Amino acid sequence: MIKYKNTGVNGWSIIALPPLAIKKDDDKMKKPDSRYEVARRLLIFWCVFIGVGAVAGSAGMLVAPDGSAMGMQALLPYFQVLPFAGVLFQDFVFPGISLLIVNGLTNLTAAFLIIRRKKCGVIAGGIFGVTLMMWITIQFVIFPPNFMSTIYFIFGFIQAATGYAAYVFLKQDLFAADASEYP
Question: Which pTM value belongs to this model?
């Protein structure tokens, strides 16, 4: 691996770094997976899983605004504790659009950015895990305790932790030091 470094006096110079350890697998040489790659793949899974689930949930709310498509008719009265309940929460249209924007499209966008190997995708994936936990916290206030809310809160925590780990591992993978700079 070659890195470029500004030496200050003479301009740029090339530094040859030792290659990563490689292992032999059926006469094919391949680079081992770094911790970042493992965390990156897990974060892609969580972003796609949460994103697709949110798009499906919002589609169910928008197809049948009374909640009948998903068996949620009994939950509509619980929305009456929220501000603007008389305007926004007469049916599931506003919650469906909110779910689509806040948890669906954002997570799918983060997954796309992570697949494209953009650092901002890793950061966004972690942030959207926290966003999911905040979304579910609001559900804890509005609705009676239930299994789905609890498990999705845990999913949000796992997504946020995976995003944080991927960010730290990425920083570690990008760190390079030249031994000749130190006495």
Answer: 0.76
